[in-house]
Design a protein that fits this description.
Length: about 300
């Protein structure tokens, strides 16, 4: 990686020695809620009360979820870091383990390990404006920084959330959107294709971002704004280019890169891009680092 011209402090990285420690917990799936035809929300509670009390994570980190006899896979923690007692994972049914999970009910015992990886520096964004952009399943990791910002709303300037999904029936956490709006934020939702009854916007997330970027003073936007972007690679490229063209420095744009992972602990070499392991050096990177990782997006 070349030297960072902005000289900013690199994102917090889990100490390598911590990957040697086994942060594994026995846990129970206490509730399962269907959100769409393919995604469910799982509330998961660590069994041991002391371990439960001591479990802390930061917005953007992930856990490895193990279903005994079926497998283990990484999932972003989608709930607020301040929520005590359980964590929430939103899981899309995609293959062996996630299809199995889509059929289970509450009461199933699982293992969770973690939290792993880097996080969004949401606390460091205090006093600044925050722009949170999600495409598709990207709203899942984004929900955690969203909750953090809303819970501490008075510490931030202007807050805008932009969320694009394929269809209205794919929208996640729609039941919370009205309550988010009560925190004096801008919330723009857009879908690629309308369905019957949809009265919202139709188009690409870049259209609502374009409107936002036309508002206000360019120099002030560049100085005061931090952006968090979660979504498919094609969205990163377009959205991040627009933010850069609007003057936002690369080190104020944060993205979550979800490569295929196996161990989640920096041991198996499945997730690396060159010498960078996305499971321990990421999944959250600033955009300057992303552009220095070949084939990252
Ligand atoms: C850091 C991180 C956070 C994640 N967070 C979430 C989350 O919050 N919610 C969620 O639903 N999923 C998330 N994923 C993806 C999730 O881990 C995979 O969907 C899961 O491993 C699939 O397991 P499976 O046994 O059901 O599928 P498999 O049977 O192993 O595979 C089914 C299909 O999914 C593909 N696949 C597996 N892993 C990935 C991946 N990482 N990216 C793209 N395609 C993949 C496989 O190639 C295959 O085509 C995350 C992945 C990472 C790396
Ligand atoms: S997933 Fe094994 S090294 Fe990253």
């Amino acid at each position: 990686m070349t030297e960072n011209p902005f000289g900013h402090t690199p994102l917090p990285r889990k100490d390598q020695s911590q990957s040697e420690i086994n942060f594994s917990y026995k846990a129970e799936i206490t509730n399962v809620y269907a959100l769409t035809a393919t995604e469910k929300l799982y509330q998961i509670q660590i069994i041991d009360p002391v371990e439960r009390h001591n479990f802390h994570f930061k917005a953007g980190q992930f856990v490895m979820l193990e279903v005994p006899g079926i497998g283990e896979a990484p999932f972003s923690i989608s709930s607020s870091p301040s929520r005590r007692g359980d964590i929430e994972l939103c899981i899309r049914s995609a293959g062996t383990m996630t299809n199995f999970l889509s059929r289970i009910e509450r009461g199933v015992m699982v293992g969770i390990s973690g939290p792993f990886g880097t996080w969004f520096p949401v606390e460091e964004m205090a006093n600044d404006d925050v722009l949170l952009l999600a495409g598709g399943l990207g709203i899942v990791p984004l929900r955690s920084p969203i909750m953090t910002v809303l819970e501490n709303r008075s510490r931030y300037g202007r807050v805008d959330i932009m969320y694009g999904a394929r269809r209205p029936s794919d929208l996640l956490f729609g039941y919370q959107h009205d309550s988010w709006k009560q925190f004096d934020i801008g919330l723009d939702v857009i879908v690629d294709e309308a369905e019957e009854g949809w009265q919202g916007a139709v188009g690409m997330i870049t259209e609502i971002l374009g409107k936002r970027l036309q508002q206000g003073d360019r120099a002030q936007f560049a100085e005061k704004t931090n952006a968090i972007v979660c979504g498919p690679p094609v969205m990163f490229r377009f959205v991040c280019d627009m933010l850069l063209n609007a003057g936002l420095p690369m080190e104020k744009i944060f993205v979550s890169l979800e490569r295929r992972m196996h161990c989640g602990r920096g041991k198996c070499c499945r997730c690396n891009i060159g010498s960078t392991y996305t499971c321990v050096d990421g999944p959250v990177f600033d955009y300057w680092s992303v552009l220095n990782l070949k084939e990252s997006i």
